[in-house]
């Protein structure tokens, strides 16, 4: 009882302490009434093991940041409708409080859509169970689900707003919506739901690109701009300064690096260029958030995908960020820290020591069981339906039937469509592998098959598209399977989810060596735990769990060949490992390395869209348009003299604005109403030159919806340059829009351009 007055006195002192204030002033942010430049580190709590959260926060503090910026991942918190999880690695409020403990403010970006190279851009898969759902629109069902989530999130985070004694200084409304649609009513609806969730005491803002921010800009929201390393800072902010001359300027995503795709070269961005961009912004008094400061790991099945062209993300989200995937300093860290120290009022704290790193000697996974020998109970369906229809969100799904008739060698088996990687078996024998990345949806049967043959189609969901209209990305087989002209029916469907409990229940047998899809089980012993990197170079394609934790996907094609295994998930003594390999290992052994392998491509992978000796023949072809483009950045529109129709588009760059490689960042064809035609079915057929040695500057970048990526020819290639695209169907077009690179001076910008459009393929 003698302690009570002391406690009451302490409480009174706490309550009487003045709350801090953060506001949007004329040309500047104001913290407690004084100008404040936000120096934010983008970090994502689900991509960091919860025991390491504080370490990564201290790393950001030592780098010189004063704020953390974070997405909230709706599908990570509401995996089933109405069932919420804010515990453990999902305890976002704890993450914010840890930031406050170390004197850092927080910017919250609750979406509901976040992109982030995350499964479905953060939207829950179960939304797709409603067949007519219209995501990111005013669809009443969609908005009701969004409102339920934001209300629950508000219970966690609204009390942590700065004015209430917390450290949250701003909250974002939606995310880059101008790159998706033009609908101010929808953005206003999301704004109202954010406010209704309790975020009423902080400025609300919306972010977009310089080319799209005015499409949905609301008068009562702050506007911020996203762009990446190397961009022309003055040009990026020029439209915003013209539209809102008194607004504080902020780059809400300054991309420090880029994300990796399976089967593509490991992405890096220049450290000096990153530091120059941040110095330029600081010299101008511009706030920024460095995306990413620490990328971390997309553990488990949470990796997303881009489309077009479909390409799934690697498990590593290292992002070539200043703080590495495992929380280590990098050369980028040191260079940026030196700059930010110049803008600090006191010496920056030293970075904390990283968690210890260990190696693990090779060990065998000595128990195994074929996937086909341990199937769950089937679900019958007369016609093909996607994974969501069987109440499965992620993982692998098996469709099985019997052929109703004999099939001849060479007859076509077509699957409409494979989402995303399939293996087809006849009576247990592998017939084909189909890859959505390559638009492989059909094949010729390699042999005669009698009536009654058991047909198994095993489909792995690689990650739902996280950007653009393709987020309506149902998995498994989305429509039908045809043998010749016959639609196959009478299916048995087997759900194979990726949760550890499902994998651990498999009765793996000692000494078994199944071929094809199988679960493999083993263990290793440790005297002391530490971070390590599991070496998957002897394995095919699948997923790994260690001590119940899903580490992520692996795929022999690379570029990622290791999986980050945090030491906080290991223990002294025995550690259990399960591997689902859908192809089968060359050797069922693993080891733990002291360094990751993130840059090793393997297999017969074509980096370019030009076969050896291939050349485009345009003799006899007549262009539908020819023009000299103006010099300078930004979108340019070329209107055709008369509307034209065709399926095959060819751009011929006859000359560039300056000597050197040619480059195009984005390309749109315009329909008769002057609106961009859909690009989801576009496919690059040919490019005379593509730079794949120093960058992933391949031809498909002109339609990948990303303004910061680009097609670029090699330095030694001379004009004319040509790019041929299959539009997927005949299209009627009245013009095109072209965007050069975003860097100062628009390097590689075309000058003289010819456009061809025709029904039949060009001669290659």
Explain what this protein looks like in three dimensions.
The protein is an alpha+beta fold and 764 residues long. The protein has 10 helices and 41 strands. An 8-stranded parallel beta barrel has the order 4-5-6-7-8-9-10-11, surrounded by 4 helices. It has a 6-stranded antiparallel sheet with strand order 26-15-27-32-29-30. A hairpin with a 2-residue loop joins strand 19 and strand 20. The longest helix is centred in the first third of the chain and has 18 residues, at 140-157. Mean pLDDT is 95; it is low at 1-16.
Briefly say what this structure is.
The chain is an alpha+beta fold. 14% of the residues lie in helices and 31% in strands.
Write the layout of secondary structure elements.
Elements: H1 4-16, E1 22-24, E2 29-31, E3 34-36, E4 39-43, H2 53-63, E5 67-71, H3 74-77, H4 92-101, E6 105-109, H5 140-157, E7 168-172, H6 184-196, E8 204-208, E9 222-228, H7 233-243, E10 250-255, H8 271-283, E11 287-294, E12 305-306, E13 311-312, H9 331-342, E14 360-364, E15 367-370, E16 379-381, E17 396-402, E18 412-419, E19 421-426, E20 429-435, E21 442-444, E22 454-460, E23 476-483, E24 486-487, E25 491-496, H10 500-504, E26 509-510, E27 518-526, E28 532-535, E29 541-546, E30 549-555, E31 562-565, E32 573-581, E33 589-593, E34 625-628, E35 636-656, E36 663-664, E37 666-670, E38 683-687, E39 711-712, E40 721-739, E41 750-758
Keywords:
764 residues, alpha+beta, 8-stranded parallel β-barrel, 10 helices, 41 strands
Q: In one word, what is the shape?
A: globular
Tally of extended strands? 41
- The whole-number mean of residue pLDDT values reads 95
Task: Give the proportion of residues in helices.
Answer: 10-25%
First-residue to last-residue Cα separation: 90 Å
- Strand order within the widest beta sheet: 4-5-6-7-8-9-10-11
Give the biggest sheet.
8 strands, parallel, barrel
